[in-house]
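Q: I'm writing up a methods section and want to include an example of the input and output format. Could you take the sequence below and give the corresponding predicted structure tokens, formatted cleanly so I can copy it straight into the document?
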Amino acid sequence: MRSGLFVFRRFDEVRRSMSTSSAVPSDGSPGRSCPVRYRYRPEAFAAARAVPVETAYVIGGLYGNPEALRAVLDMKRREEDHTGRAVTLVFNGDFNWFDVDADDFAGINTAVLEHLALQGNVEAELDGDEGGCGCNYPEHISQDVVDRSNTIMRRLQGTAKSFPELVRRLSALPMHLTLEVGGERVGVVHGDATSLSGWGFAAEAMAVPQASQEIESWFDRAGVLAFCSSHTGLPVLQRFRAAGRDRYVINNGAAGLPNFRGARYGLATRVSKWPAHPGQVLYGAQCEGFHLDALPVRYDHDAWLQRFARAWPPGSPAAESYAARLADGPDLLPEQAQRLSNGAA
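A: Here is the clean output for your methods example:
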């Protein structure tokens, strides 16, 4: 999970600290390691039997926010009532994080498991004690952030011990999924095309010009039109060119946290053969028979802040890492998340 990050550098600083999208150093310490079991190859998406959907919402980074879960379920019902067409929900990991309250943990996981779901590193580490949070944080994330994330993970693991059957079901979830939407194949991941906790689809990683060649090769090997991701926490929609076609990476940032400066809503990714209602979409891309959009998840922010503060009061590790983002959002505007010129920004 991208997870406790939210001390951000500007993109130009990160460019100087990274050479390619895969050049993310890991020293093997808790929170900075990428377990071997997290890894897969881009060819796995081409080989997979695709799940056919007409419209799907991909919800990454719910982070244990019950108000955001309620909002996503309401979004699904509204679109289905308006169009008469089914909407498939795909939770692509880290739907847990702040939900250390037992009732919240049970309620969120029971609801999510009624839909398509993937493991994020949080779910992968609920019954573990070796990798910390499993975030695979790169070197530009401070050690204080890493340590706080590992502490949050340990507290969540304590809650999870009371729910062994839920943890068993979460541990059995896949790490990636292929959808078929309007005749196009779409890869859904938590991290990137090679790892559950990969940072190759981070906004800052894809801003590095050298990243384009590697990501284009991932598209060729995976045989997909788009990848939907979330792990790294900043939203971005970026166009690439591979095998003579435009291809897309869309990272929704977080469904359960603000994603833009001054904002009070999360984000979900909508993939569909049908256009969204114009008033729903913050930004997006489309080609014939395929629509890829970022939708706001307008949860009850005040109720969420109150719930968060009860579990994570001032001075707690989660408050230290996330209070600024909860209050003001990251230093990003929606127009900065759109990179629709081919290649890296």
